[in-house]
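Worked problem 6 (solution included).
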Amino acid sequence: MIVESFPVGPLQCNCSIIGCPETRQAAVIDPGGDVELILDFCKKNILQVKYLLHTHAHFDHILGSRAMREATGAQICLHQKDEQLYQNLGMQCQMFGFEYDEPLPIDHYLNDDEELSIGNSKTTVLYTPGHTPGSSCFQLSDKESVLFAGDTLFQGSIGRTDLWGGSFDDIIKSIKSKLLTLDDSTRVVAGHGPDTTIWSERRKNPYLS
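Solution. The predicted structure is:
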């Protein structure tokens, strides 16, 4: 499986691209900006983007979604409980002084434990509310297990819960019930900053003791 992550956009959100080497189908997780960079990677690797998967609807994770949808025809996918936040992209950007394009309609609402086929591989949706009402993670099980955690889980930390719709109790419950049950070897790609592992966060994260 092709797995590539790099920071994009004004807040350096980690955008991830997962692709099937046999069929060349791909998904882009959290296209938060720098669309030409994302498209260039897909072009160089001959990838056809099927899904735009969003861990949540904060502006730094969705700023490039419209342009990606228009360039590739890929489906915009988000949990329905974050739709109001998604539709208020303008309000979010105006608060921080960033330019934006009006968001396009959501094509597919994500559901907990849903499996999405990307060529010959699948990624599983894990509904993990807390950072936002509709926060979700994506687990890819191939030769290695990779979790795309968005802003739910970070190296040594967790996502903020003092923003609209956040809940500390919910995020702790989500992490302990949905993420810490994964195999210790699972690599965690956070929404910002360095990768970590489930093993490391189970043992060292001060919020999860």
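Discussion: Helices lie at 35-44, 59-62, 65-72, 83-87, 89-96, 168-179, 198-204.
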